[in-house]
């Protein structure tokens, strides 16, 4: 599969937001917004897990949009502990839905680490105004450091067994309250070194299965 990738900036609430757009080879079946890990620890839209998620989405036929958080790359502003970042992602979603032919396509939110925290609150905000995302995919959910909001029961949650940043037990504790299943990749750390092909295949297989229901 060959995907087309574009990179540019759009106007945001406090300045430019840098985005990268992966387009599938065929007619898109939906759109996805992919959120990267913590910007103060090197997280960018070029993070390898974030790019893997975008690649999985285009393989499934989604247009995948990644955006840099505030103060990263060409995105203006300064880090706002995930609060202003939520506003920015809501703005990116609004921009996506304004594009001709995309306004009625289903939306998938996919996040890694800090990105799961931001997207959990974005998902709640979308649901509160009656325009919910169709699916959520959370990888390395940041349950140990951030107040990750409750998510829908069909959320795809993937975690590394030996995650050194977010211990597996803390994610299970967060998921248990909501009766959410967690897919565990054995022997994997937080950044899924050597496990990215497996991670991608799990995302593809799980979303493909959910999309048939």
Structure description:
The structure is a single chain. This protein is α/β, with parallel strands linked by helices. It has one domain: Rossmann fold. 33% of the residues lie in helices and 22% in strands. Strands 1-2-4-3-5-6-7-8 form an eight-stranded mixed beta sheet, sandwiched between helices. The protein is globular and about 40 Å long. The chain starts with a strand and ends with a helix.
Structural topology:
Blueprint: E1 4-11, E2 16-23, E3 30-35, H1 48-60, E4 62-67, H2 83-98, E5 107-112, H3 114-128, E6 135-139, E7 156-160, H4 168-178, E8 183-185, H5 196-211
Parallel strand pairs: 3-4, 3-5, 5-6, 6-7, 7-8
Antiparallel strand pairs: 1-2, 2-4
Helix pairs in contact: 1-5, 2-3
Q: Could you give a short description of this structure?
A:
It holds the Pfam family Peptidase_S15. This protein is α/β, with parallel strands linked by helices.
Determine the CATH topology.
Rossmann fold
N- to C-terminal distance: 25 Å
**What's the shape?**
globular
CATH architecture: 3-Layer(aba) Sandwich
* Structure annotation, total helices: 5
- Strand-pairing-aware structural class: alpha/beta
State mean pLDDT (0 to 100 scale): 95
Considering the protein shown, what is the CATH homologous superfamily?
Answer: Alpha/Beta hydrolase fold, catalytic domain
Helical residue percent band: 25-40%
Which blocks of ≥5 consecutive residues have pLDDT under 50?
none
Tally of DSSP β-strands: 8
Q: Indicate the radius of gyration in whole angstroms.
A: 16 Å
Quaternary structure state of the chains depicted = single chain
The major beta sheet can be summarized as:
8 strands, mixed
Q: How many separate domains?
A: 1
CATH class categorisation: Alpha Beta
Strand content: 15-25%
């Amino acid at each position: 599969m060959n995907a087309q990738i574009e990179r540019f900036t759009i106007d945001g609430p406090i300045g430019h937001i840098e985005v990268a757009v992966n387009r599938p080879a065929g007619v898109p079946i939906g759109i996805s917004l992919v959120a990267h890990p913590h910007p103060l620890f090197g997280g960018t839209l070029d993070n390898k897990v974030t790019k893997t998620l975008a690649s999985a989405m285009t393989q499934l036929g989604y247009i995948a949009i990644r955006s840099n958080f505030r103060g990263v790359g060409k995105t203006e502003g300064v880090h706002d502990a995930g609060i202003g970042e939520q506003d920015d992602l809501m703005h990116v979603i609004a921009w996506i839905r304004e594009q001709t032919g995309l306004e009625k396509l289903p939306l998938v939110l996919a996040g890694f680490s800090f990105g799961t925290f931001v997207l959990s609150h974005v998902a709640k905000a979308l649901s509160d105004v009656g325009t919910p995302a169709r699916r959520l995919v959370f990888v390395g959910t940041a349950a140990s450091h951030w107040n990750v909001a409750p998510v829908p029961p069909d959320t795809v949650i993937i975690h590394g067994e030996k995650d050194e940043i977010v211990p597996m037990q803390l994610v299970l504790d967060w998921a248990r309250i909501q009766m959410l299943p967690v897919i565990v990749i054995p022997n994997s750390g937080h950044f899924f070194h050597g496990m990215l092909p497996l991670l991608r295949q799990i995302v593809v297989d799980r979303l493909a299965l959910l999309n048939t229901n």
